[in-house]
Amino acid sequence: MLKIRDLSSVKLAFCLVIILLVQASPSHGGDLIYTLQAASFPSELYAQQQYDLLASRLNNSEHQHLRIEKVGRFYSVRIGGFSNKKSADSFADAIRPKVGQLLVIKAYIKKDRIIRQYPDPAHIDSGGAPDARAEKKVLKEPALSVTTAISEEVFDETAAMMHQAKGDIYWELSRTFMAMEEYEQAIRFGLKHPDFFRQYAKLLFLNGYIREAIIQMEKAVQMRSDFDAFRIDLGILYLADRKLEKAQAEFVSALELNPTTTHIYIYLADISLKTGAYDMAWFYIRRAEHLGHKGQGLVSKLSALSSEPDLSVLNSGGKGLFIRQILVSSRQKAQEVLLRIGKDELFELIAEKESLGPNAAKGGYIGEVDSSAMHPEIVAALIDSKVLSQPVIVETENGFHVLQRVEPFNHSVVSKALAGS
């Protein structure tokens, strides 16, 4: 009779057999080509946003095979299809000034995993270019100054994804050291996307390898420096390694991308307290309170060490329209959200769980908006409101918006103002 403690081993053996069978299968159901990977995300929402950004920046001749593919657990945004690497490199050189970092990979185009594709994609011709006339037009554009060379390494997608899948299974079964070995193999086969590096960093940290985790998280941030969540994760790793200045720099960068993440102000207040920057510590703790934080521990510590500075010198509230929202489907739901905020539940945590809007993962933060491009009722409700005043409910054709005006964060401006006071 099979004992309960043997079930995990049976599950592991079964999963690995399935993976090996898939790996050994000669049929891939698609065309093996060279393509350009722009980004990869665990969330389809982020992939759709990246797709829209690329579609807006590229011209008609450059949209060749622009698509989103569901590869394993990730949504990959890719461009182009080429029969040789030279053509892929030339095309990447041409569009990089518009789209940023690109990775040349060797992969299969499989129709069953394409979830979005630019209309009327060109076929792959015998010369390797998506379209001979289109490629000629791209290569003649004057903006072709290549600042960063593409790595000569080619991504063996099948092998890399298989090792990642094995690593995921080992991790699920708490065999973390074996999972680490599989992830390292995935990297050797060229797996390079920020979400994977972030995942690997977490695994390393859980096993006590802080320095190694930092290396992987630095790779993720280098590839997606515009993601505040990545910078927060790297800052926490630096903090665990007692690198206070580096942690502070990442937290500051995260807040400049998204100034509504309450707990990051607490991290920065604690770092400022430890480094003797008491005025900045007061600023951070008060900003956290304005966003809904109710802890008093740091205030007590600061009060024993310094007097509170005059923070009114900052007075940054009236410039620009920066907003965050929680989008729900009914007025009753919106009223419930207001009640929860009134009971000291953080706005950004409710947004992450409840909001139907595209910025839910960012705590509902939309950023600075152009009033001429916003719904007139939203503008009317917010344009004269004070920063961080009580949220309001606005109904539009998209649903019920719980909206609040917020303020941006600029570390240089704040530190200079406090120093001058």
Number of domains in the coordinates? Answer: 3
Averaged pLDDT? 81
| Individual helix count | 17
Give the beta-strand count. Answer: 10
Strand residues, percent:
5-15%
Could you state the order of secondary-structure elements as H and E?
Answer: HEHEEHEEHEHHHHHHHHHEHHEHEEH
The largest sheet is: 6 strands, mixed
Q: Give the class-level CATH name of the largest domain.
A: Alpha Beta
CATH homologous superfamily label of the largest domain? Sporulation related repeat
Low-confidence stretches: 1-5, 20-28, 120-153
Structural class: alpha+beta
Biggest sheet: strands side by side, in what order?
5-2-3-1-4-6
CATH topology of the largest domain: Alpha-Beta Plaits
List descriptors.
single chain; 421 residues; alpha+beta; Alpha-Beta Plaits; Serine Threonine Protein Phosphatase 5, Tetratricopeptide repeat; Chitinase A, domain 3; 3 domains; 6-stranded mixed sheet; 4-stranded antiparallel sheet; 17 helices; 15% strand; globular; disordered N terminus
